[in-house]
């Protein structure tokens, strides 16, 4: 077997086995802040079939941060994608605003989204600072491709 064949075999394995396993932590369907607040025991199911409980205190922090009229526009969990030396946030502009507000990068009102410019990337220490605030609502996935 040539080195090229070995490399192709490894790539095929990564594509067929490893990448689907990495994505198993993502929710089957994102749930809105409003729907999680209505649940007696808030939780979501992952694509891998696991159930993750959501901390009610974290939801309460979000409930107080985001105006009630926008609760159905915030979908959880927060997903960050790890790149080589930084992370990008995968979510809507409003969800991005939550991250930036929590980290102290913006004081813009959520009703003035047209004037808000989200950050393009986050350093690992910023991600972990955000994750400490919302541990049950924050996921990191690895970039591939």
Mean pLDDT metric: 88
What is the string of helix and strand elements? HEHEEHEEEHHE
Rg estimate, integer Å:
18 Å
The parts where pLDDT drops under 50 for at least 5 residues are none
Task: Tell how many strands the DSSP assignment holds.
Answer: 7
| Largest sheet strand order | 6-5-7
Termini separation comes to 24 Å
* Anisotropy-based shape: globular
**Major sheet size, sense and barrel closure:** 3 strands, mixed
Number of H- or I-type helical stretches: 5
- Classify the helix fraction into a percent range: 25-40%
Quote the beta fraction: 15-25%
Tell me about this structure.
It is a single chain. 20% of the residues are buried. The protein is globular. The chain has one domain. The strands form three sheets. A three-stranded mixed sheet has the order 6-5-7, covered by helices on one side. A two-stranded antiparallel sheet has the order 1-4. The protein has a two-stranded antiparallel ribbon with strand order 2-3. The two termini are 24 Å apart. It has 145 residues and is of the alpha+beta class. β2 (43-45) and β3 (51-53) form a beta hairpin. The longest helix has 21 residues, at 3-23. 39% of the residues lie in helices and 17% in strands.
């Amino acid at each position: 077997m040539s080195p090229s064949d070995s490399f192709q075999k490894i790539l095929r394995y990564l594509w067929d086995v490893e990448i689907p396993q990495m994505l198993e932590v993502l929710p089957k369907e994102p749930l809105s802040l409003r729907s999680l607040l209505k649940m007696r025991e808030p939780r979501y199911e992952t694509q891998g079939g696991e159930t993750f409980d959501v901390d009610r205190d974290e939801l309460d922090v979000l409930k107080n941060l985001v105006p009630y009229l926008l609760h159905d526009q915030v979908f959880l969990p927060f997903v960050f994608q790890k790149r080589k030396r930084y992370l990008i946030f995968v979510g809507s502009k409003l969800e991005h605003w939550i991250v930036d507000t929590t980290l102290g990068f913006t004081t813009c009102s959520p009703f003035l989204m047209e004037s808000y410019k989200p950050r393009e990337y986050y350093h690992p220490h910023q991600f972990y600072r955000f994750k400490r605030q919302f541990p049950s609502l924050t996921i990191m996935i690895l970039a591939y491709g």
